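Possible regression after last week's pipeline update?

I re-ran a chain I had predicted before the update to compare outputs. Posting the input and the new output here so someone can diff against the archived version. Not blocking, just want to make sure nothing changed silently.
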Amino acid sequence: MKLKVFQKIILLNLCLLIPTVLCITFVFIQLSNHTSFGSKAVFAFSLAIGLLFNLLASIPLSINFSKPILHLQRSVKKIAHGEYNTRINIRSNDEIGKLASDFNTMSREIEKRINIIDFERHKLNTVLESMGEGVVALNSRSKIIAVNSRALSLMDKKMTVELKALAEKVLKKGSRITRELKNNNHHLMVCATPLDSVKSIGMGVVIILNDITELRVLEEKQKIFMSNVSHELKTPLTTIQGYVELLKKNTSDEIFDMSVNYLESASERLTRLVNDLVELSTMKQLEFSLKPKKTDLAGLIRDIAGQMSLKAQKFGISIKCSLMDTAVIIADPVRIKQVLVNIIDNAIKYSQGDRIYINMRDTRHGKIELAITDNGVGISADNLKMVFEPFYRIDKARARNIGGNGLGLAISKEIVEKHGGKIEIASVEGKGTKFIITLPPWDKNPFEFYGEEIT
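New output (post-update):
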């Protein structure tokens, strides 16, 4: 059986002590038999030999004893630097061997726990990054200790200061605080909740940032929509009510005929408004159906331009077309005609120009691009972003006199998008307006998603 560490130490001392004792004993024997100078030389020589022997004997024993200790020390440093898979290969049954075995057990346990912690941290980070809300965690000193990318996209220097101030209030109050903050163009609903005290960081605060900008925009649009609907309904209803009262008081043929004409006009306006509202509502809910088929867009535009030219001439406007020979798409020709008639009709009635250009081209990606351009008064940048909103009209007085209700472009946008296309607008005030409609080619069926039957 191998010796224990304590026994090794005793053996080392004996190995050093025995030669020394023998040397000293030999020296004393010589001194007792001789008293000459030669005896002293023998004494010195014997002493030197004994010390040299002790030194030579202790070096290998010291190395053998210190080697596992040094190995253990290096392994501890490796673990301290994050190398948790470090193991010590010492095969002995003494205290050093047992210490090495315990060290390996500890190292395996540390590696296992660190892997669990890393997995949980990765899982937590994945959850945080997949959240649509921003998450910010702060410690008791209002220092940010965790934040996800969504929160970073919503925060700037000003917002960071406001969140830290809110965290301090939560820590003092000890309960949740919810408030709405505005940061640049974002409306944020902020919920700050205190964290239970943790030994390593003390109290803390978790803040959830929910971007409610779209909700606020929709609420504002809803208010405008309801206001516009009320106004559009009120105008013809007031007309109807007024002429009904007039008919009650005056029954002359002239008044009667005039009243009937105005009542008919007001009822037609109400009918158009209600029909447009119903149509827009069904489009928004994807409840309206199309009847798609292979359609020659170029031929369709030529027919529309011919029909609209008569009305354009009354306003002193000419329509110029630059089209491809044929441009086959999968579309509902009735709905596409509705879009084109609406845009051209708006250009005739509102542009106050003298020319309308209709250009068609095939894009690099095989899509059909249609541009309808006028050289009229144009649209200001502030109004440009609102033209597709329901009931939005740039010149309300002119639109009311002509008979528009502000729903045409909103409906047109829904129709084009239902066809898998895109409608855009570009305008320079004082120079004119351009509508750009992009539609997929016939071999790219946009109706597969909607389940429409192609005839």
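Follow-up from reviewer: compared with the archived run. The chain has four domains: 5-113, 132-211, 221-284, 293-439. Marking as no regression found.
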